[in-house]
């Protein structure tokens, strides 16, 4: 399978890194980006083919992944439209609805909208997928092959669910990193070196995530198992509850979903 990425930024580089790790050859991946630095760095890291602009050579792939910012997608789609024949188009852009993108592509319907996340780079991605009704079973499998190569996938029946996927797992790694930053800052304040603070924090996240993944018990039960009566965890969690942290996280994720819908509404007017 030959894949062209249009846009070679953060998310494209995470997906390409994951694909290469899974055995995809750099030579079968093309990247089109307007930034020469991005192209040089991707070529140096993964030996992918690079193009400064989209032309018939770069669009001749089996799969075209649209990996530019949502606000850049309309312009890219207009350039791509005349080059489309039977390639499967996969969009990873937040907010942009499949029917709007299809309209920008001159009515092209072989289109799967997805929402991956950056852990794809280490084969631990989580991707939501939604296919237009015209997408064939073979094309759905093709899309799943690309995204399953870099992690887990979830097909959505309703495109509106994509706003929630974006808010939970698309943006989610950033929430986890934010929590990690706070834990590392606390560990440093409590006397550890930055390296020690990183190890303590990372191993705790990895261990807790593995435990949760392998356990039959839900997160609340696992949390209760750490929380001894009158102990240290109880004091920490009480402090977090008093500060309304859980409610804030829930509110933040709702805000992200609203932003995804807003992007879709605004760009849908173009
Ligand atoms: N980052 C993430 O965790 C995730 C991002 N996404 C989605 O992925 C998409 C890309 O995000 P991200 O990688 O973070 O963004 P980046 O800005 O890092 O990458 C986009 C790249 O596309 C380039 N570009 C702009 N216009 C063109 C063009 N006409 N032709 C080719 N390349 C172009 C940009 O250049 P320049 O910077 O000069 O404009 C930039 O290098 C977005 O739509 C986002 O919603 C989805 C899931 C997760
Ligand atoms: O922040 C964003 O808009 C993109 C979509 C999900 C993660 N990053």
Brief summary of the model shown:
Pfam families: F420_oxidored, P5CR_dimer. The chain has 270 residues and is of the alpha/beta class.
CATH architecture of the largest domain: 3-Layer(aba) Sandwich
Instruction: State which percent range the strand residues make up.
Output: 5-15%
Tell me the strand order in the biggest sheet.
3-2-1-4-5-6-7-8
Going by helix content, strand content and strand pairing, the class is alpha/beta
The name CATH uses for the topology of the largest domain is Rossmann fold
What does this structure look like?
β1, α1 and β2 form a beta-alpha-beta unit. This protein has 270 residues and is an alpha/beta fold. It has two domains: 3-162, Rossmann fold (3-Layer(aba) Sandwich), CATH 3.40.50.720; 172-260, ProC C-terminal domain-like fold (Orthogonal Bundle), CATH 1.10.3730. The protein is 54% helix and 13% strand. The chain contains twelve helices and eight strands. The longest helix is centred in the C-terminal third of the chain and has 24 residues, at 245-268. 34% of the residues are buried. The structure holds NADPH dihydro-nicotinamide-adenine-dinucleotide phosphate and (2S)-3,4-dihydro-2H-pyrrole-2-carboxylic acid.
């Amino acid at each position: 399978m030959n894949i062209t990425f249009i846009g070679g930024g953060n998310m494209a580089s995470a997906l390409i890194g994951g694909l290469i790790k899974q055995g995809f050859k750099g030579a079968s991946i093309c990247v089109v980006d307007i930034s020469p630095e991005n192209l040089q760095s991707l070529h140096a890291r993964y030996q992918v083919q690079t193009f400064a602009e989209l032309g018939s050579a770069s669009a001749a792939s089996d799969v075209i992944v649209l990996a530019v910012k949502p606000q850049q997608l309309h312009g890219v789609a207009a350039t791509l439209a005349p080059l489309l024949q039977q390639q499967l188009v996969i969009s990873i852009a937040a907010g942009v609805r499949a029917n709007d993108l299809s309209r920008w592509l001159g009515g092209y319907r072989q289109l799967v909208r997805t929402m991956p996340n950056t852990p794809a780079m280490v084969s631990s991605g989580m991707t939501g997928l939604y296919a237009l009704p015209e997408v064939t079973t073979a094309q759905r499998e093709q899309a799943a092959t690309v995204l399953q190569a870099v992690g887990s996938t979830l097909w959505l029946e309703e495109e509106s669910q994509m706003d929630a996927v974006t808010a939970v797992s698309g943006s989610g790694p950033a929430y986890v990193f934010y929590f990690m930053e706070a834990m590392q800052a606390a560990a440093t304040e409590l006397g550890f070196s930055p390296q020690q603070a990183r190890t303590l924090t990372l191993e705790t996240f990895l261990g807790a995530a593995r435990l949760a993944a392998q356990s039959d018990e839900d997160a609340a039960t696992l949390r209760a198992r750490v929380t001894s009566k009158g102990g240290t965890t109880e004091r920490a969690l009480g402090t977090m509850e008093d500060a309304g942290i859980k409610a804030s996280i829930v509110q933040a994720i709702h805000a992200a979903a609203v932003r995804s819908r807003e992007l879709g509404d605004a760009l849908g007017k173009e």
